[in-house]
Amino acid sequence: MFKYIPLTFRNLLRNRRRTILTVLSVMISLFLLSLLFTVYTAFYHRERPPEQARRLITRHKVSLTHVIPEYYGSRIEAISGVEGVMVQNWFGGIYIDDRPEHMFARFAVEADKLFDIYTEWTIPPEQLEAFLRDRQGVAVGKSIASQNNLTLGQRITIKGDIYPVDLELTVRAIFEGRDDTVTFFHRKYLEEGLPEGYKGNVGIFVIQAATTDDVPRIAREVDEMFRNAPQPTKTESAAAFELAFVNQLGNIKLFLLSIAGAVVFTILLVSGNTVAMSVRERIREIGVLKTLGFTSSVVLSMIIVEAIAMALLGGVLGVALCFAVTQAMRNVMVSFFSGFVMPLWGVPLCLAAAALIGLLSSVIPATIASRTQITEALRHTG
After folding, report:
1. CB–CB of 135/186 below 8 Å?
2. For 241-279, how does the pLDDT look when each residue is reduced to its tens digit (9 = 90+)?
3. Are 273 and 25 in contact (CB under 8 A)?
4. Using CA atoms, how far apart are residues 346 and 35, in angstroms rounded to an integer?
5. Were both Cys, which of 29, 43, 66, 200 would link to 267 (CB 3.0–4.6 Å)?
6. In this structure, what is the dihedral angle of CA atoms 295, 300, 301, 304, given to the nearest 10 degrees?
7. Closest to 26 (Cα-Cα) out of 303, 202, 273, 332
8. What are the beta bridge partners of residue 171?
9. 81 — alpha (psi -120 to 50), left (phi > 0) or beta?
10. H-helix or E-strand containing 43?
């Protein structure tokens, strides 16, 4: 069988324009499929720091748009197994303008507790001291600092949108680590500039448990403590809290699966049509081959291998394009695409999908061609 491989690949060059267009079609389809795998991984299987396993988030039971009282913090801290509790309020705001590179997470926090809770980040001691000493100081993730050319001592202004106040901040610290695409400033400084109705409200409490075994129990005890309060709570792990944002969009898994199915089905039709056209043009040639002694199984195999090779080439190019695009997106828009990278397990899946497309699109035309009688094939006029 291997001796027929050169002839099989030579057939790919018979109509180069059609072959190139088919390969490009498969490439785009497999690029989209790879991108869907990447999005799925970023949402549901992104690698998280081990320190996050001991972290919980407490928010209002109804939604994140509702606030909870500040005094809840001291009561949560009294629960057995709780090592620390920190207020963390989403500020939002606008830095310079609304361009994507200037959009990153901005939080008001209890600065003295920040790096005791988020232990996965590293910060020079002198910068930490400067950040804690300056009430207008801001700690910036290294990725954000690099993207926006922020340096120590630089003054920045964040215009409020959720809160009716503009913040004048000074970069006092640059921390680094996994997912350092966020900035933090002093909650006390924010509270000083707010009207009375905005003060004392908390968006979320970040809780640090002593051990991972304590996490489920602490979550239950916190929610039971405030079950009958005017502002009931919902406490969950940090990973579950992140996924809550995704779940608000609906059934993302089903949505991604539906798109992937549509992509594969569409390219299957395109590839099948291409193979059928190619086979119809070569009916007489197939009759000649069978006259020379080529068996039906050999003819069948040659056509199928030809289609699989074409699909695999498109698949390799599609996966390579996905790697290049996701890397560029991470570099240009790091605040949105942290952890956004093509998973290694997606590579064999995409290539297997490409091979399956080639196989399924060629089985019927190849079977019909291989079963064509020699006399009928030689009489074929195209």
Report:
1. yes
2. 877 666 655 566 777 778 888 888 888 888 888 787 777
3. no
4. 10
5. 29
6. 160
7. 273
8. 138
9. left
10. helix 16-44
